[in-house]
């Protein structure tokens, strides 16, 4: 039963990535189309909308994929080991 559950989770995540990319590209395309129609600049805003929509879709997929993989656990990570704080008792003259 565990393998079937992990398959469903993976399939759901893959569908999420595909939908996110498709919707982002579609929104950019529609915005470009309506700007072209409003300003009478035939293919220019449509092309820009497709490019920016695709870039936004790629960025969304990248961010979602980063949520899937945990960050590496390095012991040498300076962010995880803070230097000890000094108080007035530690100061020697």
Description of the structure:
- With 93 residues, the protein is an all-alpha fold.
- The chain has one domain.
- It has 2 helices and no strands.
- The protein starts with a helix and ends in a 25-residue tail after the last helix.
- The mean pLDDT is 84.
Structure summary:
The chain is mainly α and 93 residues long. The protein has 2 helices and no strands.
Characteristic key phrases:
mainly alpha; 93 residues
Structural class: mainly alpha
Number of strands: 0
Mean pLDDT: 84
> Sheet with the most strands?
none
- Rg over CA atoms, rounded to whole Å, is 24 Å
Low-confidence runs:
none
Distance between the termini: 67 Å
Total domains? 1
> What is the count of helical runs?
2
What is the overall silhouette?
flat
H and E string: HH
Helix content class: 55-70%
Strand content: under 5%
């Amino acid at each position: 039963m565990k393998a079937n559950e992990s398959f469903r989770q993976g399939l759901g995540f893959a569908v999420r990535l595909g939908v996110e990319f498709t919707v982002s590209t579609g929104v950019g395309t529609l915005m470009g189309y309506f700007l072209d129609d409003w300003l009478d600049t035939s293919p220019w805003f449509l092309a820009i909308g497709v490019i920016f929509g695709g870039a936004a879709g790629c960025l969304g997929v990248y961010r979602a994929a980063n949520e899937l993989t945990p960050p590496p656990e390095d012991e040498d990570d300076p962010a995880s080991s803070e230097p000890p704080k000094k108080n007035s008792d530690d100061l020697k003259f």
